[in-house]
Amino acid sequence: MNSQSKLTRPEAMIFDMDGTLFQTESVLLPAYHKLFDTLRSEGLYTSPTPPEERMLGSLGMLLEDIWKVVMPDGSQEAHNRANELLLQLELEGLAGGGTLLYPEVKTTLESLHQQGVKLFVASNGLEHYIDGIVETHELVELFDGLYSAGKQGTLSKVDLVKMLLEQEKLQSAWMVGDRSSDVEAGKKNGLGVIGCAYAGFGNHDELKGSDVLISSFPELLELYKKAIPNT
Q1: Which of 22, 111, 198, 228 is least buried, going by the fewest C-beta atoms within 10 A?
Q2: 178: nearest Cα among 200, 156, 150
Q3: Percent residues over pLDDT 90 in the chain
Q4: pLDDT (tens digit, 9 = 90+) per residue, 96-122?
Q5: Residue 172 three-state SS
Q6: DSSP assignment letter at 144
Q7: What is the DSSP letter of 7?
Q8: What digits encode the pLDDT tens for the residues 160-171?
Q9: Membrane-spanning regions, if any (predicted)?
Q10: In 97-190, which residue ranges form alpha helices assigned H by DSSP?
Q11: Whole-number Å distance between alpha carbons of 129 and 108
Q12: Strand-pair category, 192-196 with 212-214
């Protein structure tokens, strides 16, 4: 754990999903390869499948922006079809079993929930994808709300977190995530930011500006315990 400042104990924690709670590659990579096989079979894409690293490095972006990075040579029709296929294939993968949360995510969330911390998800992903992960891994009862760009129609993580804070009438919260978009969303909304340095999808500068960096999810419990109580 790398602590740069003393945090105030929050009434809520807001979590990114991919690379923070959920080991995205456990469902994404099989779906990714099937997606491009399908695009080629449908005549919408003729090039080889782009490197996996290009997709993993784009996690945290809005889906429409991901395809511009992953297959810039693809048509708008191919991008639109890729949106449909990715959700379909990921939901099939979740239903098929074998997908993974990061170690001790569920027990850590249960402990925070029992201590009265309100828990939320704020993700740039699609609504049914986020719902699918939460349902598959039996986390439904732990969360007070699931916010996603796909459901809320926001154009940035900053806007999504702002909407969450306003709708839930939260006075204090920590933003917990693994990408620069999470850091930006937390800082621009006046939140403490916990950077998750265990996923390894982004570059070394992704989490610059975080208040604290953690190398495993359960470290949140100690951070919460040591935080300055709200007066």
Answers
A1: 228
A2: 200
A3: 86
A4: 988 999 999 999 999 999 999 999 999
A5: coil
A6: S
A7: P
A8: 999 999 999 999
A9: none
A10: 105-114, 127-136, 149-152, 157-168, 180-188
A11: 22
A12: parallel
